[in-house]
Amino acid sequence: MEEKRSTPPQEFLVVILATKSGLGRDTDIQILPSLIEIKGQPLLIHQIVNGVKSGFSDFIIVYEEGDEDVQKCVKVAQENAKEFFKLTKIRFSSVSHDVSQKSASMLQSIAPLLTTDFIVIEGNVAFNFPLFRLVDMHKARKAACTVVLKDRGEKGVSKDAIANLIGFCEDSSRLVVWLPESSQYSIPDEVLLEFPCIQLSTSLEAMMVFIMSTKIMPFIAAQTDMSFGSISFDIVPFLVSKQPLNLTFPADEESDEEQSGSSSSQIIIHSDLTESDKEKAPQPISTYGFFVQKDFCERITSQASLKLVKNVQEKSKEPLFTLLP
Asked: Cα Rg for the chain, rounded, in angstroms?
């Protein structure tokens, strides 16, 4: 049964990375994942329709220069369903080949367009959970970043996903450790002191769907001594490492420091906040996990994973993905 909401989260922007950035170098997928047809409809259109039905009206489609099929695909869908798309704004932004291979680099290239909190979806992700559920959790937690995660259990993460050590608080889903693949793991003492009960896992896979605060991009841009190529392996680990409970983004209001020319991308540390102060404090730099359980969510990274998606769709009693009306 299709889930509905009473208040569409129209203030959020949806960014779809319709490139091959989600594919490994040795992939046997030849076609652009966004154009792969599932039930007669390109994956990109499934993603957009899910967003529209969840109440979103503003989309940015990022594609590689010269790949005009992405725009054609969307325009055909808009022409065939004018009534459905009549309140939807879809913009396109092209990036060079080199930039198109790196998810974080693509976000940095469109940073001037990211004027509100936004959802990022890799072009090869097939999912059926309504995006508003992700937004509802993100807003309830007052998160700076929310990551969709899937527990692969004993099977482990796919060969196309670098194994991570992820630590989280089970009662809140707050991520407190995110360490890329390494021969040796080390958890900082301050993390253990602040979060004495941590669940650790190397079987959680980031499904390449994220929500981010608009303040993240200037914050990242201010880190001039660092390079951010991937969202999952550069931006998210960095944010998780910078999120003690008393660490926040600057307030929206202009402070005396900002008026004097101080960078708005600097972080501010608040010590010994009272409960009343916390309510007024700027947005904390906190990252949460949205754990996919009963819903379907898979990254198409190979012919085998594509076959899995199509087989699950064929065996499902109800349509897994949202089709155009």
From this structure: 20
Tokens of 50: 């899910």
The bridge status of strand 125-127 relative to strand 118-122 is unpaired
Question: Distance (Å, rounded) from C-alpha 291 to C-alpha 297?
Answer: 10
What amino acid occupies position 230? S
Pair of tokens at residue 306: 């594509």
- At 19, the amino acid letter reads T
146-158 confidence digits (pLDDT tens): 999 998 887 767 6
Task: Say what the pTM is.
Answer: 0.84
Q: What is the CATH number of domain 10-128+305-325?
A: 3.90.550.10
Which pair of tokens denotes residue 97? 């080949």
Around 269, how many Cα atoms within 13 Å sit in the side-chain half-sphere?
Answer: 4
Task: Give Cα separations from 133 to 78, 83, 128, 211, 295 (angstroms).
Answer: 25, 25, 11, 12, 12
pLDDT classification of 262: cutoffs 50, 70, 90: very low
- CA–CA distance, 173 with 145 (Å, rounded to integer): 12
Contact assessment for residue 248 and residue 283, using Cβ atoms and an 8 Å cutoff: yes
Residue 102 and residue 19: Cα distance in Å, rounded? 9
Spatial CA neighbour of 137 closest among 9, 15, 46: 9
Can you give the residue ranges of every domain in the chain? 10-128+305-325, 145-252+265-295
Q: How many other CB atoms are found less than 10 A from the CB of residue 255? A: 13
Instruction: Work out the percent of the chain whose per-residue pLDDT is above 90.
Output: 40
Q: What is the DSSP string of 114-155?
A: --S-EEEEETTEEE-S-HHHHHHHHHHHT-SEEEEEEE-GGG
The span from the CA of 295 to the CA of 272, in Å, is 41
Burial of 42 (0-12, 13-18, 19+ CB in 10 A): buried
The burial class, CB within 10 Å (0-12 / 13-18 / 19+), for 6 is exposed
For 296-307, what is the mean pLDDT? Answer: 83
